[in-house]
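pasting for the record
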Amino acid sequence: MPVANIHLIAGRPRAVLHELLREVSRTYADVLASPVDRVQVWITEVDPDLVALGGVPAVELSEDERAAREIPLARLVMMQDRPVEQVHRAITELTAVIARVLDVEPERVRVEAQSIAAERWGIGGVPASVKRQAEIAARAAHP
């Protein structure tokens, strides 16, 4: 269920974006002790014509000015029952990964961690609270 959406100004090489997808997926899974196949990460690239940095359209800035002003934003979604220490670790470690892979100062990276109640998250049309109960019961029946 863990989901991460990273918002960036378009223009980075695909190889860098692919590395970011891999590294964020692995790190997020590790922090949450979740199988990586349950983690989904996507990057939303925003057209530089449609972003203002310091009140100036990004397309009007040099690459150096854009790099110095851009704030990569990662939005994380996870189930509400995660310990706050785990949420804080996700913020810390994903900030470090994003900064390293994108070669930006960690102070520029922003991470929003949203905790969603299992009753408010659907999986295949079924609330996660119900689906999780069924999965736990099935595992107990087949040890």
